[in-house]
């Protein structure tokens, strides 16, 4: 034996079907095979080991005014309990992250409270100090609101074109919320869908693509239908993401919760569109959650007063892994969409399950699903639209070789912030 390990995960099932011990030290996998002598051994018989997921669209809330919906403790614990080891926080906080000072405050809050790795994006508006945010460590820019949504006002096309030019010069990634909203009475899921149609997502994407600066890396957020996803595929080099709520929920099938709970932007669409989106599974580059927690009190108001957004960081991988266990989708395709492509787009490392790669891992029961219920989830939101559906939840989640979650117990590791490539430490840091 050449080197000792801090932890050996014994008798793990690997995605290819092999059973092996995974030895961890210094935050990385150091060996896969017969276990190295280790300070701590954990019997993982019966558990499938997957790389930790990278969820590139999460609203962690917190700050001074939104902690009652979610904060970094509850949001990051929810991530870990759903097999997500890295979240990318969206900057439509209150106030939004338009300055380097606000950004540094957000990093300090997350560094104190987060249990999973995190990147934080910068907010794009006419007032944003984009270069300052990049140097403060923004991982990317967006979601950028080309149409108004919860906690985000629409940025004008001229402001967007100027921002695109600065972002392209920095060689950074911009992520885009595209919709075209028709004014009208927003009284039901059907009305909400009518007022925010998928055709509007497409026109907005085309309007923005016409303003892209040369060399801009752009990513379209939460596309909700084949119409908009196909339009994104016609706008290379842009990429796009699809959310679990557009794959699992529809106007007709919105679970056991009242309609307002499933109000989200872009909206859940009709059942035929949801099914057609599944038909495009292989062409979808990224699945992300758009975890956007609001409380039961907020979601149970009259439909027009309900804020848009659905919590989902904890249920994203479990819902999809249950579909793998059912034989509907391939495990490799799931890993591409929730681990490798988002990591690649963000320029960050994900675990390959090979020696030398980060020990960001989640261990799931084999072939066993459980019934999802809000009572066992960890988000402060306290509800889920997926109540009663089947999911596969991890029993153990490891971040940088640290056992951060094991059978409902959490432990906080150090060094979880992932700054972007433009990061320059300030003199006070
Ligand atoms: O439904 C949504 N909620 N869509 C967004 O774009 C923002 C999000 C939120 O922050 O609540």
So, CATH architecture of the largest domain?
A: Alpha-Beta Barrel
**Fold-level CATH name of the largest domain:** TIM Barrel
By CATH reckoning, the class of the largest domain would read: Alpha Beta
Question: Bound small molecules, which ones?
Answer: (4S)-2,6-dioxohexahydropyrimidine-4-carboxylic acid
| Low-pLDDT residue intervals, each spanning 5 or more residues | none
Q: How much is the radius of gyration in Å? A: 21 Å
Query: What spatial order of strands do you see in the largest sheet?
Result: 5-14-17-18-19
Q: Which shape, going by the Cα principal axes?
A: globular
End-to-end separation in angstroms reads 41 Å
Number of strands: 19
Structural class: alpha/beta
**Beta-strand content bin:** 15-25%
Instruction: Enumerate how many helices there are, as a single number.
Output: 12
Number of domains: 2
Helix coverage percent of residues? 25-40%
Mean pLDDT: 96
CATH superfamily descriptor of the largest domain: Metal-dependent hydrolases
Major sheet details = 5 strands, antiparallel
GO molecular function: allantoinase activity; metal ion binding
Protein name: Amidohydrolase family protein
Cofactor: Zn(2+)
GO biological process, one term: purine nucleobase catabolic process
């Amino acid at each position: 034996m050449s080197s000792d390990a801090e932890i050996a995960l014994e008798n793990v099932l690997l995605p290819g079907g092999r059973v092996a011990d995974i030895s961890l030290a210094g935050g990385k996998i150091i060996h896969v095979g017969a276990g190295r002598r280790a300070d701590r051994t954990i019997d993982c018989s019966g558990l499938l080991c997957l790389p930790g997921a990278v969820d590139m669209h999460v609203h962690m809330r917190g700050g001074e005014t939104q902690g009652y919906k979610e904060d970094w403790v509850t949001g990051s614990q929810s991530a870990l309990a759903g097999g997500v080891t890295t979240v990318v926080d969206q900057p439509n906080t209150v106030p939004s992250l338009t300055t380097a000072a606000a950004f540094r405050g957000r990093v300090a809050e997350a560094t104190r409270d987060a249990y999973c790795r995190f990147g934080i994006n910068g907010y794009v508006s006419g007032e944003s100090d984009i270069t300052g945010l990049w140097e403060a460590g923004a991982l990317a820019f967006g979601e950028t609101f080309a149409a108004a949504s919860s906690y985000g006002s629409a940025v004008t096309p001229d402001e967007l074109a100027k921002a695109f030019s600065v972002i392209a010069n920095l060689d950074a990634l911009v992520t885009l919320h595209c919709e075209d909203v028709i004014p009208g009475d927003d009284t039901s899921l059907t009305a909400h869908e009518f007022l925010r149609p998928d055709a509007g997502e497409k026109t907005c994407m085309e309007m923005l693509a016409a303003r892209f600066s040369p060399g801009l890396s752009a990513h379209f957020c939460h596309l909700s239908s084949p119409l908009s996803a196909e339009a994104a595929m016609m706008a290379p080099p842009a990429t796009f993401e699809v959310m679990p709520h557009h794959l699992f929920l529809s106007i007709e099938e919105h679970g056991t919760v009242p309609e307002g709970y499933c109000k989200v932007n872009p909206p859940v669409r009709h059942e035929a569109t949801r099914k057609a989106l599944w038909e495009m599974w292989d062409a979808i580059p990224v699945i992300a959650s758009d975890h956007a927690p609001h409380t039961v009190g907020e979601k149970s108001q009259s439909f027009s007063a309900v804020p848009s957004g659905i919590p989902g960081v904890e249920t994203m991988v479990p819902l999809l892994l249950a579909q793998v266990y059912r034989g509907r989708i391939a495990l490799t395709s799931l890993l591409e969409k929730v681990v490798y492509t988002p990591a690649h787009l963000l320029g960050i490392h994900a675990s390959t399950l090979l020696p030398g790669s980060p020990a960001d891992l989640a261990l799931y029961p084999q072939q066993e699903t459980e019934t999802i219920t809000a009572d066992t989830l960890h988000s402060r939101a306290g509800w889920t639209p997926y109540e009663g559906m089947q999911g596969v939840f991890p029993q153990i989640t490891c971040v940088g070789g640290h056992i951060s979650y094991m059978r409902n117990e959490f432990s906080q590791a150090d060094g979880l912030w992932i700054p972007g490539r433009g990061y320059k430490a300030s003199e006070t840091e």
